[in-house]
Write a structure and sequence with these properties.
By secondary structure, the protein is α/β, with parallel strands linked by helices. 29% of the residues lie in helices and 17% in strands. The chain is built from 5 helices and 6 strands; from the N terminus they run E-H-E-H-E-E-H-H-H-E-E. The longest helix is centred in the N-terminal third of the chain and has 13 residues.
């Protein structure tokens, strides 16, 4: 047996096999949905996963308006932002944030599960979230992925 045939292959930007997938947000609760999306954006579902490169897929999330959460998170989960000025703290609960823009809720959850560096920012740019069932990425021929086994 040739011992040179088992070399570790590191994927970089040039030879990454990036695909397009569609995920329905109505399939799973917010946290489980976001963790699966973050894994697909990082590429951890692929056998050629390389931690220091963007080798994940482009993820399209549809039906953000039909997002589910469990328990009393709609009223009890609070998003806090601060402008940097004294007295500039703003609080909004999940129900109000979802009513304002439901795509931001999924984006916020997924961004928190990615790395906090330039690589995480580059991977986050591969996420596309839409409120309804329509999306403008039909030319990329995305594959539908079901998250019902969670």
């Amino acid at each position: 047996m040739d011992h040179l045939s088992f070399k570790t292959v590191s994927v970089n930007k040039a030879n990454a096999n990036k695909g397009w997938v569609v995920v329905d947000a109505a399939d799973a609760p917010l946290g489980r949905l976001a963790s699966q999306i973050a894994n697909m954006l990082r590429g951890k579902h692929k056998p050629s996963f390389t931690p220091n490169s963007d080798c994940g897929d482009n993820v399209i999330v549809i039906n953000a308006d039909n997002l589910r959460v469990t328990g009393k998170k709609m009223t009890d989960k609070i998003y806090i932002t601060h402008s940097g000025y004294p007295g500039g703290q703003k609080r909004i609960n999940l129900r109000d944030k979802k009513a304002k823009d439901s795509t931001r809720v999924i984006e916020h959850a997924v961004r928190g599960m990615l790395q906090g560096n330039r690589l995480g920012a580059e991977q986050f740019r591969n996420l596309f979230v839409y409120k309804g069932t329509e999306h403008p990425h039909q030319a990329q021929q995305p594959k539908a992925v079901s998250l019902t086994n969670l």
